[in-house]
Each structure stands twice: as structure tokens, then as C-alpha cells.
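Can anyone check this?
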Amino acid sequence: MKFWLSLLPLSVFSSTAFAYTQQDLVHLSTSDYWHTLGHYQPGLTGSFQSLVDSPAFFLSPQGKDDPLAELKATVEGFDSEAKQPDSSPNDQRLSCRYPARFHWLKQKLHTDWPTPVCPEQELWKQALNPKGLTLVFPTAFMNSPSSMFGHTLLRVDAKDQNRHRELVAFAINFAATPASNDNAFLYAAKGLFGNYPGTFSVMPYYRKVREYNDLESRDIWEYALNLDEEEVQQVLRHLWEMNGVEFDYYFIDENCSYQLLALLEAGREGLDLTSGFDFQAIPSDTVKVLREKGLLDAPKYRASFGTRLMHYAEQLDDQQLLSARAAMSGQYPTEGSLSERAAILEMAYEWLNFEFYDQALAREEIAPQLQKLLIARSRLDTPSPFSDPVRPVMSPDEGHNSSRFGLGYRYSNHNADQALLEWRVAYHDLLDNAGGYIPGAQISFFDLQLGVDQDGDVDLNQLYLIDAMSLAPDYRVFDSLSWNIRAGYDQQPGTVDLTGRYFMQGGYGKSWGDANRMHFYALMSSELNYFDAQGENLSLGLGMESGLVWQASEAHKLAVSAQGLYQWDAMRWRTESTASWHWALSQQLGLRTEVTYQQWQSDELSSTLRLFVYL
């Protein structure tokens, strides 16, 4: 290959005329598209700074903070190459290193810079064979801090691609690069504060499907993007410029979804996708922006391994499931109809394959068993008796918006009544409208409630930095653990008045039922509290938390919950129970009422009525 590449001409250049003025450069340096190519963000005083953290990306020493200096250095470099076409090898030329800049500036400045020959880039494009792009949205994965809100990536659709060849296409991914020895807590903490570098990568799409669909059992939604071939080419030119470039990665804002939007902006001048994500970029919200801009086709649904297995199990009775379990150990069915035996063998294969991925079983032991199941099934000349999993009614981009604003009123039997003002940055709790979200999962991030009494005094009632729950019910073919974690500030009934509490709480347990209808959970729980009340500042609590959530209808959801934790230092129980009703007035509007009883140093009974708007 190197021999044949060496036969390519070093350049195909002609004479060059430079007709632009310095005023042209100043004008272009202020354009939104130049800021897109340099990933520049405006500051409060009119200054700019690029989100790129790799110094080698910039041609000017001031390039990170000065779009004009970077543009001048870029144009001077292209000019110099045009005057001396043989000054450097093909792929080391600036016009090969920065193809998106070169393509755009040549059009805007009306120069006759000769088109360079870039063998490595051409080979890369030939391998991609691009015609279109598809946005891929794997739903949330509650057991990974970086994927609790979901994830997005791009698939490069080839010119000769069809539905059966999608898996051999290439995927564009942006992800953090954590240290190999970081535990889950450090991973979450560093991701919140941007301590990991984030980079773009290109890989076979089947690897991402295997990771999300199979290993993590995450459903995948695929949205074809309405970009023409030239726009796709410009996106890929800019992606080439991002090779080896690092960004500080933040889980909440400058994450995979934000950076993919920034990459797509390069495809079409005037396309603004990122300006509304100054504080957070939740993947589902970024998908909605693309839909609002008219860039998305109707999505295709790719059910996860776990979804398929559950759907198959619903079509079998208990005895057939027992037979499938026996077939996983080599005891194949000999009785029953042809269709029934086929169903048992297919179920056994899917079930064993799921456990192979889910439990990381030994390949040398499981692979022969899977092969034997396939051979036994192939001997039964009958079509599959199973139907395909049903596509959910709503896709992730059709769910409620992630930020939430609330107004309400609270009545209290011992303390002053209050008007309530609430704000939640992100993103979903158990009582919110479930359409488009994972049933039985909750992630509330930065959930603030202020109370104002009749005298105008303002209290901080609560500030939950994180309130996450994963309540995946046990099922006939699954044995799932449920968990929750909370951290922040709230108020508890003290001896005279409500007293502030800083706390961290977490629990593990089980859930039962159907998360789409009614399910019950019970968790063993522990908490560490710091109370404002003198004499009982630090307290360790151990106990239990349980609850019931009922989706009574499409618009109405009810829940009851209770927890009791014995405070070892104070030698008393702290208990709390709540009954809630949420009425989804529309997809972006909800009415919620709650009655809460709390007991600590005294007791407190309160009721609230709140109107929520999802923004």
C-alpha cells in the first residue's frame, strides 16, 4: 500500500491570486461558522474562548482565546502552501490537516488555492463511503454514572447500505477517557467537574450495538438526519480536524451529546444547535433540538437483549419456562407440538446468551452449549413462534422536557404555611409523566425548593444535589437489584421548629411487579446526617425504605413511600411517610399533591399542592 501511495502526485497546484483584504479576515473571524470550526464560546465581556484543550489544535499561540489571530494564522498557512506547493509531504500540509477550514475559507475568500491531494484522508473516506448520518440514542443505563441520562452517537451510513448492513457501518463517538484505576465514585466526581479528557473516535457500529444492546441491555433509537451529501462531507472534514483533539469532559453539559451537536453544526452554515445548552446538555433534550430544527426522520427502534428476552418470556407459560431452563443444561424437549419445542429451544438459547453477557460467563463453557441449542433448533422445520418486541408508544425525544419549574403551597400543622418556588435542573422522577423515559428509574439533579411565609421570610426547604433510584422489578427470567442514592439538604422537625439537615443516603434491595403499571420496592438503607440542632449534629442512621408506585392511567400516577432509620448517635428513630398523586395535564404540565408525615425530635404533618412546568 505504501508503494502505491508513493506513486500519487505530491500536489496538484496552479497559480494563486490573493484578492481578499484584512477587513475580510476581521469580518470572517466574527462569523458564527468560524466560531463553530474553532469551538469558540462567548464570554461575559465580549471575549471568546475555545472549548478545545489541545494546544496543538491552534495554529496561533493566541488561538484558544482569539478567533481573529487563529483565522489569520490559518489563512497565512494556506497562502504559504499555495505559493510553495512542494514544501511539505501531502498529509502533513495544513490544507490536509484542516480540510473543513480550507473548504470554507476558499469559498468565502474566493481564492484559487489549489485543492490538495491527501492520501490518508481519501483512504479514510473511501472506507466510510459516506452518504448520510444517523443519530443513535441508547437509552439510560442506571448502573453507570456517565450513562444515567442516556447517550448519543452518530452512525455514518454508506452509499451501498441497507437495514441488513447497518451493523458493519462506522460510528462516531465522543467519550471521556477515565483512569483505569478510578472507582465508580471517583468516576462520577471527576466527570462532574471536568477532570477527564474527552475525545472523538470512529469505530465499527456493531461494537457499540454489542456494548449497549447486549452487554448493558439498553434499547436503541436510530434517527436518520436530514443532511445532504455535501453537508455530510463537511461534517466529516471537521471530524478529521478533531483527530487527537481533547476537550474537558463534563457529564452534565460538555458531554457526548453537546459535542456531537457541535460537530453537526459544521455541516451547515447558520445551523445553531448548541446555544441553548449553557448549563446542561441532557441527551434526550439534544435529540429534541434536532427534531425542532427539522433534521430528524422518524426513528427506528432496536430492542435490547433484555427487552427481547422479557418479551419472549411473556409468550410462554411457567412450565415452558422451566423446560427452557432445563434445555439450557442440555435437557432438550421431546414432547409437545413442533412449535412449542421450537419456542422452548429458542427461549433457552436467548436466555443462556443473555446470561453469558450479563454475568460474564466463561466463553469456553457457554459457546458449545449455545451451538448445540442452535443445532437442535435447526432440526425443527418450523418458523419462529415468537413475535417481535413491541415498539414503545413514545420515543425519547417525545417525553417531557428535563428541566422543571414549580409553583405551589404548603400547609403545615406546626409551622408556618408557605408559598413554594421550585426548580429542578434535570431530569425525571418516579411520578413524572413516564412517556419516553425508563419505567422505574429516577434521576433528579439539583432539585431546589424555596418557601416564602406570610411575613415574607424565605427558607431553603430542600436542595437535593442528586436523588437517583433504579427500581428494576424482578421478573420470571431476571433477578435484579434495586438501589437509590440521595445527597443534599432538607429540613426535619426539631424540638421547636424545623431544623436543617445535610445528608447522604443510599440503599439496596428488591422490587416486584410491573414498572409500567404497579410495582413495590423495599430497600435496606443507611444515611449520614449533619443536623443544625445543637447537641445532635452528626448522626448515622440505619433502617429501611419501601414504597408502592401505581400508574393508574395514562395521566394519573399514585405513590406511597415510607422510611424508618434508627439514629445510633441520638438513639432515636427518624421516620417519614408520604402519599402522592401526580396528574399529567399535558406532556409539559403536571399537577402534584402530597401529604407527608415526619418524625424526628417532634412530629410534622404537611400537605402540598404544586403545579409543574417542564422546560
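Reply from J.R.: I decoded it. The first strand starts at residue 40 and ends at 42.
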